[in-house]
Amino acid sequence: MAAAARRWPPGGEAFSLAALWDAVHARDPERLLREGLRRHLGGAEVTLHASGREALRVALAWLAKQSGRDEVLIPAYTCFSIPASAVAAGLRVRLVDVTLAGRVDPDSLASLPLERAAALVVSNLFGVPEPVRALRECCARAGVALIDDAAQSLGARAQEGPVGARGDLGILSFGRGKPLGALGGGAIVWPAEPTLSSPPARPRRAKALAKALAYDAALQPAVFGLLAAIPALHIGETPFEPGFARGAIDGASLCLAAVAARDLEEQARERARRADALAAGIEAGSAFRSLRADPGSTAVYPRLAVVAPSAQARDRALAALRDLGASGMYPSSLDGVPALRPHLAGEPACVTARELAARLLTLPTHREIADVQRERLLAVLASA
Questions:
Q1: What CA–CA distance (Å, rounded) separates 342 from 143?
Q2: What is the per-residue pLDDT for 372?
Q3: Do the strands 169-173 and 186-190 form a parallel or antiparallel pair, or are they unpaired?
Q4: For the residues 148-169, what does the mean pLDDT come to?
Q5: In the predicted model, is pLDDT for residue 4 greater than 50?
Q6: Contacts of 89 (CB under 8 A, 6+ apart)
Q7: For residue 5, what pLDDT band results from cuts at 50, 70 and 90?
Q8: How confident is the model over 353-367, as a mean pLDDT?
């Protein structure tokens, strides 16, 4: 295999043989998954859905029906799946600017009309908990629900509690590269007894084994490099697609998620250890700034996000490190997504979100990144 074809994936952990054995032989994977999620979410209950996008669509539609409102407040820099879920729920999107740490800007939120907003989505980007106490108070005064989105941060904790369980509702995703990765599926987190029920799902053990083995093979650098070079696969792209699948969690993902929930805490600790070591090296030897958890909080870091001193420095570093799994993440702030514009409420003012999109770089934290790759990452950022 030519060396040029080798490319490390930006995230994701291979399934161990022990995990695959348990996924195939688990007698009641849905019960195991629910029990595991309750442990990580302080006892909160969940309903299971086809994906994180579908879980958010269902949650937003339910909140809109309960409140009689037709808008959703969404951070102007976040995963494109979040506004896609809002549009799929039939709602309009009102953008809230963010800080250079990727968090909702309280001043931007306070400047917006909130009387039509059913909910505010807090993204907790890159596994780092976002403080929500002040946001909850602002939302409560305006009758707006707060959604604590833990798609990238399940297992993280803030002073207010476990991420995903600090809002009126929470959202989980079990997709590729997530802290709880099961190649699909998602959930709504309910602080009390769920008002809705999970669509029925049947375990698919053989399919789970086949999907996991194919995924493990695709994570090999030589294989991933070849796949990433095929334009039709759109690997690494972040599309805005409101037409995603609806309904129940896939039976294969149900089996894989049950064992992933068991291993979530250990994997989160290991990723945090690697991310903290990498962040310390970056901050000691470069002008890049890592996005890390506040004192008293813990993050899970599916990737380590760093903000470059300039857009040009980010682009130089990204070009040099893409083969090691570095990623610019979302290609623009949400006001720059043409397909979303007809669904926007008001004239968005997203100056900081645009700057963050131009300066942000994310780095891999998975266990396959060895010392030699880490040293190269540090050297490139120091020179950029």
A1: 26
A2: 84
A3: antiparallel
A4: 97
A5: no
A6: 57, 58, 60, 61, 64, 72
A7: low
A8: 95
- Give the whole-angstrom CA distance, residue 138 versus residue 382: 41
Task: Give residue for tokens 């999907």.
Answer: 211
Q: How many helices (H) and strands (E) does the chain have?
A: 12, 12
CB atoms within 10 A of CB 246: 14
- Which pair of tokens denotes residue 146? 């707060």
8 A C-beta contact, residue 54 and residue 247: yes
Give the residue from 239, 264, 240 showing the smallest Cα distance to 172: 264
d(CA 32, CA 258): 5
Name the 3-class secondary structure at 161: strand
Locate 223 and state its tokens. Answer: 């294989």
DSSP one-letter string for 125-153: GGGPPPP-HHHHHHHHHHT-EEEEE-TTT
**Could you give the count of Cα atoms lying within 13 Å of 70 in the half-sphere of its Cβ?**
5
Q: Are 51 and 184 in contact (CB under 8 A)?
A: yes
Higher pLDDT: 239 or 82? It is 82
Q: Please list, in sequence order, all residues whose beta carbon lies within 8 angstroms of the beta carbon of residue 48, skipping any fewer than 6 positions away.
A: 30, 33, 185, 186, 187, 198, 199, 201, 248, 249, 254
**Amino acid at site 226:** L
Taking each helix axis from N to C terminus, what angle separates 205-218 and 17-25, rounded to the nearest 10 degrees?
A: 160
Q: Which residues contact 370 (CB under 8 A, 6 or more apart)?
A: none
Q: Report DSSP letters for 174-243, one per residue.
A: -STTSSS--SSBEEEEESSS-SS-PPP----HHHHHHHHHHHHHHTSHHHHHHHHT-GGG-TT-----S-
DSSP assignment letter at 228: H
